[in-house]
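SAMPLE LOG
Freezer: B-3
Tube label: C17
Construct: single chain, 71 aa
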Amino acid sequence: MIEQLCNSKAEEFHLIGYEHVTGKEIWECVSEKYKKTGQPELHQMVNDILSLKVTKFMNFMTLSAFRGNHF
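STRUCTURE (predicted):
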């Protein structure tokens, strides 16, 4: 179910011009904060995915590129 949500969010980004975004990248962005706090309840993960904004995602991708993480 989470994978489908991430793919749906990626498709939403495709509609506004970000054609190369994948569901995996969406999950990496959303789950970054879970590394510190642990995995939350399902409803919180769903909310985090559905409320993800392009600016937050692009900031995450930029920082990942600076750190040398390749997607």
